[in-house]
Amino acid sequence: MRVERWDVRRDGAFNEAALLHKLRTFGCEPTTRAYPAKAIISPQTDRRPRIHAVVSGLMKITINSDDAVILSAGDLVFVPAEATPRLEILGPASATCLEASLGADAA
Question: Does 106 score more than 80 pLDDT?
């Protein structure tokens, strides 16, 4: 599982517009998704690689019931093609994410 953490030295000050710009450099057009606190989401398997980036909140993502990582604002994870992700919103706050499909060679 490929994870990128927001790095102020490399990425600049964090805000939603800066994260959106970063995702667009991967050649995708993300969709904003809002998840309520303590939600558990099991998106369907996608034939294409995907990217999930956290704008706000705390999210745990598990890939294929094996690898898990906790993401906070500015973090992003690349979900391989054919993988089955499970998202869990942690803590008492809701989470906002940017999500998109990528070209086959991007993940």
Answer: no
